[in-house]
Amino acid sequence: MKICSVQTKPITGDIECNIADHKAWIKLAVLHQTDCIIFPELSLTGYEPELAKKLAIFPNDHRLDDFQKLSDQHKIVIGVGVPTKSKTGIFISMIVFQPNTERNTYSKKYLHIDEEPFFIPGENIKPLIINEEQIAIAICYETSIQEHIDQAIKHKATLYMASVAKFTNGIEKANHRLTEIAKTHHITTMMSNAIGKADNGQCAGNSSVWDEAGHKIGQLDNTSEGILVFDTKTKKLTTVYRQ
């Protein structure tokens, strides 16, 4: 199986433009025969908690329909980040599109204290089963919660994918934690981060892949958009930067 981690620079609050950009990345991933592509946390809006109430959408928003069409056409699993709304509040979510399957919503269960004024805890979904691999999703702060990785291991995850919005002052800690997860649990681990300004900070990029021994086998830089495509069978990593 080939899984793709994307490093994007979202346009703050512009869902339509970010959707168009996501579609371009998906088409690039398809050229590399990718089975699954995962975007950073809140990738369709940018990580802007103070704007989340205004920007939040329902998971069945028709603007996302093209993602399902691409998933069906190319037999690819797609995970995009967006704030979603319900009667009780706003969630930090990843909407997952699978071929010929109803879209699914993974909502961040474990919130950072700074997120609590703007979001409510959601519900995780079980690992995605793709070509005999089981991909466990984590959204940013969830990677620091031991119960979260324990649940992933309990469900026999073979790959741990962190969709994050890590800033320059937190990227070192995130790298250390994901290295620890890979090494301790003998699980391939990936991180998809953004670049550019967000929430009065600067996203740090450095999207990465760690092998089952905790060795970092590939990383994007901290200023460029790009993709990492990892083949779980051959262990080959392909790195592509946006020209």
Please describe what this structure looks like.
Pfam families: CN_hydrolase (PF00795). Residues 1-234 form the CN hydrolase domain. This is Carbon-nitrogen hydrolase family protein. Helices cover 23% and strands 31% of the residues. By secondary structure, the chain is of the alpha/beta class. The strands form three sheets. Strands 5-4-3-2-1-14-15 form a seven-stranded mixed β-sheet. α1 packs parallel to α3. The protein contains five helices and 15 strands. The mean pLDDT is 97. It has a single domain (2-241), classed as 4-Layer Sandwich (Nitrilase/N-carbamoyl-D-aminoacid amidohydrolase). It is globular. The longest helix is centred in the N-terminal third of the chain and has 17 residues, at 15-31.
Task: Tag the structure with descriptive keywords.
243 residues; alpha/beta; six-stranded mixed sheet; 15 strands
What topology emerges from the helices and strands here?
Blueprint: E1 2-7, H1 15-31, E2 36-38, H2 52-55, H3 65-74, E3 77-85, E4 90-97, E5 104-107, E6 128-130, E7 133-139, H4 146-154, E8 159-163, H5 171-185, E9 188-192, E10 195-198, E11 201-204, E12 208-210, E13 216-219, E14 226-231, E15 237-241
Parallel strand pairs: 1-2, 2-3, 7-8, 8-9
Antiparallel strand pairs: 1-14, 3-4, 4-5, 6-7, 9-12, 10-11, 12-13, 14-15
Helix pairs in contact: 1-3
